[in-house]
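Technical annex B. To support the medicinal chemistry partners, we prepared a structural model of the target in complex with adenosine-5'-diphosphate, based solely on the information shown next.
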Amino acid sequence: EYGVSPQAGDEERVVESALRPHSLPDFIGQPKVARQLALVLEGAKRRGRPPDHVLLSGPPGLGKTSLALIIGSELGTSVKITSGPAIERSGDLAAMLSNLGPGDVLFIDEIHRIARPAEELLYMAMEDFRVDVVVGKGPGATAIPLEISPFTLVGATTRAGLLTGPLRDRFGFVGQMEFYEPAELQQVLARSADLLGVELTDDGSAEIARRSRGTPRIANRLLRRVRDYAEVEADGRVTRAVARAALALYDVDELGLDRLDREVLDALVTKFSGGPVGVSTLAVAVGEEPHTVEEVCEPFLVRAGLLARTPRGRVATEAAWRHLGRPLPRGGIP
Ligand code: ADP
C-alpha cells in the first residue's frame, strides 16, 4: 500500500538512509530534545565515559532512529541496531551485548515490546555492564557472570509509559519527541530536495509540509511521489500547483490524515455518533490493536484538534465533523 502511514516499509528504509541527517546540527527541529542531548553527549565526552542510557519516545517517523545513529557518530562509536520484537530469547540479547565494543551504542527500537526474560537481563547490563549467562538446565544450571564493555543503550518507544517502571528508571535521559511544525517540515523538505536534486519552490514545499502529518518520514515520502508527478506530468519543478495535483491524485488528505486516522474518525462519527466511546471499542470498530490507535493515531488527531480525550471516552470535535464533510449533530457536539 502506498499510504501515508507513519511506519516505514523495508524498501523505504533503504531510500530513507540516504536522507538521514548525520550530525546534531544537521538534525532539524526537536529543539528541546536536541539541546538536552547535545549536553548529555558533551558532558560524557569531557568525562571520557559513555553517556547515560537514552530513551526516545514519540510516534513513528519523527527521527528516533536518526538520533540514535547521530549519537553514535557524535561519539565516534559504532551503533548496533535491533528491536524489541526481534529479541526472542535472552540468549540472543546476551550475545549481542557481549559483542559490543567499548563505548558502542546499542539501539533497541520498540523497546517496550521486549520479552520479559530479555528485559531482566538488560537491567544488569545497563547498570553494571555485566550479564549472567545461564549454563545447563534444571537444578544443575549455573549462572556465569560475564563482563561486557561499557556501552550506551538507546531505546525507542512510542510512549515512555509503555515501559515497565524498572526499565524506565534505568535510563538517565528521556527525550520526548514532538510532531514537527510545518516550517520545520519545510526545512526537512528543502534539505531532502537538495539531496535528491529536485527543484522545490517555497509554496510547493509549504503544500507538502501542511499535509505531512507533522512527520518527516511522511514529508520525504510525499516529496518522492510529487517528484515523480513533476517529472512525468510537468517540467520537473515542484510548485504548489504540481504538489496539489499530485497529492490529489494520490488521495493525500488535506490535513495529512492517513487511512487509519480517517477510519478512526469516521467510525467515531458514524458508528458512535461522535462519542464518547472507549478506545478499545473504537479500535475494534476499525479492526486495529487498541495500542496502535492510542499510540500512533490519536496523538496526531488530538494535536490536529479533531479528537478529544475525555474522562468518559473519545469524542469527535466539531472540526472532525466538518473535515469529514458531515452535518453537525442536531443536539450539538457531545
Ligand atoms: P523513527 O525512528 O522515529 O521512526 P526515523 O529516524 O527513521 O524515525 O526518521 C524517518 C526519516 O525521516 C529519516 O530517514 C529521515 O530522512 C527523516 N527525518 C527524521 N527526522 C529528521 C530530522 N529531524 N531532520 C531531517 N530528516 C529527518
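Notes passed to the chemistry partners:
The pocket of adenosine-5'-diphosphate is lined by residues 16, 19-21, 27-29, 60-66, 156, 188, 216-217, 220 (CB under 6 Å).
The first strand starts at residue 54 and ends at 57.
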